[in-house]
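User: My notes are a mess, but here's the protein and 2-acetamido-2-deoxy-beta-D-glucopyranose's SMILES. Can you give me a structure?
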Amino acid sequence: MRWPQTKLVTALVAVAFTTASPGHSDIQYPMSAATQCSLPGFVSNLSSDAEVYLPGSAQFDRFSERWSNLETPIVNITILPATDDVVKIVGAADKCNIPFLAYNGLHGSITTLGRMDWGIAINLRKLSGVTIAADGQTATIAGGTNSKVVIDELWAAGKQTVTGTCECVSYLGPALGGGHGWLQGHYGLMADQFVSLNIVLADGTLQTIDANSDLWWAMKGAGHNFGIVTSATIKIYPRTLTNWAIETLMFTGDKVKALYQAANDHLLRNGTQPADLINWSYWFNLPEVDPNNPIIAFYIIQEGVSVVDPAYTHPFRALSPLSATPNNGSYLDLARWVGISLDAPPCQNTGTANPRFPLYLPAYNATAQQEAYALFASATNASESSPFANSLFMFEGYPTQGVRGVSSASTAYAFRGRDNNLLVAPLVQYMPTDAARDREAAELGNRLRGILQGGSGRAEMHAYVNYAYGDEDLEGWYGHERWRRERLGKLKRKYDHRGRFSFYAPVV
Ligand SMILES: Cc1cc2nc3c(=O)[nH]c(=O)nc-3n(C[C@H](O)[C@H](O)[C@H](O)COP(=O)(O)OP(=O)(O)OC[C@H]3O[C@@H](n4cnc5c(N)ncnc54)[C@H](O)[C@@H]3O)c2cc1C
Ligand SMILES: *[C@@H]1O[C@H](CO)[C@@H](O)[C@H](O)[C@H]1NC(C)=O
Ligand SMILES: *[C@@H]1O[C@H](CO)[C@@H](O)[C@H](O)[C@H]1NC(C)=O
Ligand SMILES: *[C@@H]1O[C@H](CO)[C@@H](O)[C@H](O)[C@H]1NC(C)=O
Ligand SMILES: *[C@@H]1O[C@H](CO)[C@@H](O)[C@H](O)[C@H]1NC(C)=O
Ligand SMILES: *[C@@H]1O[C@H](CO)[C@@H](O)[C@H](O)[C@H]1NC(C)=O
Ligand SMILES: *[C@@H]1O[C@H](CO)[C@@H](O)[C@H](O)[C@H]1NC(C)=O
Ligand SMILES: *[C@@H]1O[C@H](CO)[C@@H](O)[C@H](O)[C@H]1NC(C)=O
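Assistant: No problem, the inputs look usable. Here's the predicted complex:
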């Protein structure tokens, strides 16, 4: 149900009159701003396709529901803009000093989002679509397009590109922070595919930017900080190899050390693993199999074959897994195989808090893996009804050739080297109860991450911003070279000096 215009206007007037909020008294509005900030003009200015929802409506609730229920933003109104409306909303919100935030796949979980305590949700879901250029070299993805839509539409046209692996995240949410995906071994990160972006800046102007803009560098890794992308034109590629194979091996926890030693020796190979090979593993409780310890699911995925090369699987089969299950299919099956398709648990919003504590690693330290496993097992013990029993420890070994093929200095995404071959993260899942539980979860996540970081011998933390918990420092999100933070700070002052886009991993 859409709110009748009159009711809306009244409600907006109510929102508007609090805009001269304490803490912003330094900003002086001209007399006419009172009228403008009462917003009726602004709302009637929205296109007839825009939708507006207020608290109390089912749609407001539905569009506010996030994947992770921890430090969530608070908003007073949800607007679903149609094409030109983003400009109008951002422009008016900027003038009236009303906080706003882009809502896309709603899988963003960084705790900095909780700093938003009122304002406007700009939900981009109506901006959805994929348009392939006549020459077949690029596609234009509307700002609110879901990852699965991009994958399917390109596939149907015989094309592919790098997208997030999970079907329910948006295309742009991951891409603006770099963006990992199955095909990054060939083509690089998602952001490496950008050709041009239509972006609404903090002042409410819509600009088309490309490699000639000073903002270009920042959009590839810190893009959430600079505007709302209403569409992205990206490189696409012919779909050449259509078949993929997977082998899923399940292990009991006593194999942890041998398993990750084998992963280093036979798969990771100091970062020289083939671009067509991916392997992930998860630790999680599966009480039917082992009520007292998490099991290890180890996935080896290979492109262009119908059976994973036995040279890769043999060393792991030799470790006596509980099971070893081969499967084969197409690119479209990958998400389902590893449990991140639209119908899989990570795509349902169940009210749980889902903080992750990410870390890039050069390789596995089998001893540290074993230590982390022991802590994870005792802290998530299903037999003892741990509140964290549904947690998941994720180990993502994407191929990295395409990522390293792009110069590190050319993007704000900072972690392209061989010392970032692996992306690991405990996901401490629990039903939120109180602040004490939140603290306990954060402490557990940080201890688990700390063990693996300690095992790497590296003092610096490298943390993927899109998985970040929120307590990492700026260096951890955006790189340890000083020039990176200076450059980000300078661009922030130039393009968003009032910090309108500062709820998601702010660069300053
Ligand atoms: C199950 C799961 C699987 C994941 N898989 C991957 C993966 O394969 N690869 C990967 O790299 N990451 C992955 N991630 C992490 C993912 O990148 C982040 O969670 C990301 O923030 C999700 O974006 P969203 O649009 O779904 O979330 P939202 O919360 O809607 O958006 C996150 C933030 O991005 C910004 N934003 C979104 N859209 C725009 C836009 N058009 N313009 C400007 N700003 C925008 C907003 O600031 C917003 O706060 C995964 C996360 C989950 C939970
Ligand atoms: C916005 O919503 C919050 C939480 O519901 C509420 O406390 C606050 O008063 C609202 N602000 C305005 C301006 O309506
Ligand atoms: C309405 O939108 C136009 C641009 O489409 C803009 O110039 C004008 O200022 C807007 N009016 C209000 C009240 O926001
Ligand atoms: C990896 O690097 C180590 C140390 O440099 C070396 O001893 C080992 O042989 C390398 N392994 C592979 C598979 O290249
Ligand atoms: C591929 O999978 C199908 C079932 O989806 C199966 O019938 C077939 O045997 C598999 N092929 C190989 C080579 O494993
Ligand atoms: C989990 O709890 C059970 C029951 O108390 C216990 O026997 C088992 O050793 C515990 N597992 C771990 C890893 O602590
Ligand atoms: C799996 O293999 C890939 C490619 O060889 C490697 O990068 C990665 O580290 C391995 N990952 C895991 C989780 O074993
Ligand atoms: C592996 O981690 C352990 C501690 O978990 C540490 O003592 C050891 O030095 C690490 N090994 C290497 C090669 O860094």
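The domain at 130-238 is CATH 3.30.465.10 (Uridine Diphospho-n-acetylenolpyruvylglucosamine Reductase; domain 3).
User: Great, I'll file this with my notes.
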